[in-house]
Amino acid sequence: MLDSNRYRILALDYGTKRVGVAVSDEGRMLATARGTIENNQQLIKRILSLVTEENVRTVLLGMPRTLRNTESAMTLEVTKFRNRLQTALEPIGVQLETRDERLTSIIAGTNIAERGMSKSRREQKGIHDEEAARIILQEYLDSLPRPG
After folding, report:
1. For the chain, what are the domain ranges?
2. Per-residue pLDDT tens for 3-62?
3. Three-state DSSP class for 48?
């Protein structure tokens, strides 16, 4: 019998070239970076495949805002993507939530610098995107009420 309380949450850090991906464990305690997906015509199809493969019930989408909490050109771009993704997720019963992603890129850069990897590895753009998605997801997971 399947345990209905065991499912994952998927987080996305949207970018015009690639989208950073992170997935929680089924107990929704720990976020793990899962690489990037190229932002092309197959993006939503690839996300839907991940949702199915990983037993995802909630998708988090990082929503960029300026430090003054105003919208930017990127906010509008992500909003358009959110609307398309919502249309794709609704028929399969997966919830879409947006999360404030201010400062995640700065935190991602700091985390990556502290890992002691080579400069060429640290400078790979996808590393920052997947780490930003992981941060968005871990902050969300940490905010969830815990039983007990």
Report:
1. 8-143
2. 578 899 999 999 999 999 999 999 999 999 999 999 999 999 999 999 999 999 999 999
3. helix
* CA 30 to chain centroid: 13
Three-state secondary structure of 84-114? HHHHHHHHHCCEEEEEECCCHHHHHHHHHHC
What torsion do the CA atoms of 42, 47, 48, 54 make, to the nearest 10 degrees? 140
Are 118 and 127 contacting, i.e. CB atoms less than 8 angstroms apart? no
d(CA 98, CA 47): 16
Q: Give the CATH superfamily of 8-143.
A: YqgF/RNase H-like domain (3.30.420.140)
Q: What pTM was computed for the model? A: 0.85
State which amino acid sits at residue 134. Answer: R
